[in-house]
Amino acid sequence: MSRVRVLVGTKKGAFVLNSDGTRREWDVSGPHFAGWEVYHVKGSPADPDRIWASQCSGWFGQVIPRSDDGGKTWGPVGNEFAYQGVPGTHQWYDGTPHPWEFKRVWHLEPSLDDPDTVYAGVEDAALFRSSDAGATWEELAGLRGHGSGPHWQPGAGGLCLHTILLDPSDPRRIYIAISAAGAFRTVDGGDTWQAINKGLVSQYIPDPTAEVGHCVHRIALHPARPNVLYMQKHWDVMRSDDGGDSWHEVSGNLPSDFGFPIEVHAHEPDTVYVVPIKSDSEHYPPEGKLRVYRSRTGGDEWEPLTRGLPQEDCYVNILRDGMAVDSLDPCGVYFGTTGGQVYGSADEGDSWTPIVRDLPPVLSVEVQTLP
Amino acid sequence: MIHVVLPAHLKTLAGVDAVVELDVEGPVTQRAILDALEARFPMLRGTIRDHATRERRAFLRFFACAEDWSHASPDALLPEAVASGAEPFLVVGAVAGG
């Protein structure tokens, strides 16, 4: 029978949740890296026993642990993230130039086919790659060299590169997203990059349709149809049918189109999940009701999924990397909250059960489906 | 033999559970101690000092003989009591860092 491994990063450590294919009983291990912020934990598709984590702290900076036994034991690998050349400046919150400074790794994206290769999205925004199992990291400097880099400005969470999507149909095509610069695409493996924000409208920047400056919270794709992208923006849920060349809004009947995560069903490219949040300052669900919204039409038409979720007095948030799906049938959906709950659904979101209730605030959730 | 006291999280990272004992060649300075510490425990590189500048991370402090050496030159000679091993060199997490 297949198994599921849920990898949870929190404000004070990482947790590994294991279950069989029924997804009813869970074994919880952790905290790993207790006391450290764990922004992200993700396993290699090429070798599921190889798992990467981003472990950081205000005292001690960045550490990258790697497990080669499915999360049972971990060892630190290289943690030097040096910007290539003279880093230059980006915009600071007050609009003045500010030197590029490495702060932390937000997201680790393992290669789809090489267990020794992994990408890291960092703050201040840049993309790094290791091809030696994490021993050394090299910046793909063409991204910051895009030309618009000096105009990028941090969002409330910092100038973070938080999303990395590898196109399974073309290893040279990568999508990334930065708050608050926008989405970018390379078609040459990372040497050169193009801003892909046409169609985004953001009232919080001087030119609402500018090429860069949009606070993209997350983007997602389905591996069987990688030309279709979904985006949860600071406001607005968006969709692109041309690999990011243009976007159109699909917020439809959502109670709020503000939110952080967006995820696609493992087997249905038109089934999408979001968690509406009330507003940019009120980071909790509308009406105190925790509702995942599912569209089976690729956006525009959304249905609330509430069974098993608190429907009163709920004021948690779900962060951008806090939702993931497994690839069992029916598809499982998981998300973690800033209140420390990790909810799981074994029926595509129709009903939910808390796997754990009292973790530290959850920063990220990833899932591995294992044979 | 120099004695170095690490904060709990760095002891865990380095895989040690007690005071670290180090042989330091030449003048006993902060730089010499930290160079020897990082040579023996490479996983600590970047966690006490910046990789590139080798400057102390902002939320760490260096204490010795009840004095704060955090703002002293990294090449200043530390007290003889540290050099002789009678007193430890302490790496301490600042109150504000977590």
Short description:
The complex is a heterodimer of chains A (371) and B (98). Chain A has 371 residues and is mostly beta strands.
Q: Give the total of beta strands of chain A.
A: 31
Walk across the major sheet of chain B and give the strand order.
2-1-5-3-4
Radius of gyration of chain B: 12 Å
What is the CATH superfamily label of chain B? Beta-grasp domain
Major sheet of chain B, described briefly? 5 strands, mixed
What is the string of SSEs of chain B from the N terminus onward?
EHEHEEHE
> What fraction of the residues of chain A are assigned to beta strands by DSSP?
35-45%
Shape of chain B: globular
Can you describe this structure?
The complex is a heterodimer of chains A (371) and B (98). By secondary structure, chain A is mostly beta strands. Chain A has one domain (3-370): Methylamine Dehydrogenase, Chain H (7 Propeller), CATH 2.130.10.10. Helices cover 0% and strands 39% of the residues of chain A. Chain A has strands at residues 3-10, 13-20, 27-32, 37-43, 51-57, 61-63, 65-67, 75-76, 89-91, 97-99, 104-110, 118-123, 126-130, 138-139, 160-166, 174-179, 182-186, 194-195, 216-221, 229-233, 237-240, 248-249, 262-264, 272-274, 292-295, 303-305, 323-325, 333-336, 342-345, 353-356, 362-370. In chain A, strands 4, 5, 6, 7 and 8 form a 5-stranded antiparallel sheet that branches. In chain A, strands 3-2-1-31 form a 4-stranded antiparallel sheet, with no helix packed on it. The model of chain A has no long low-confidence stretch (mean pLDDT 97). Chain B has 98 residues and is an alpha+beta fold. In chain B, 22% of the residues lie in helices and 19% in strands. Chain B has a 5-stranded mixed sheet with strand order 2-1-5-3-4, covered by helices on one side. In chain B, a hairpin with a 2-residue loop joins strand 3 and strand 4. The longest helix of chain B has 11 residues, at 30-40. The interface between A and B is medium-sized, with 13 and 19 residues.
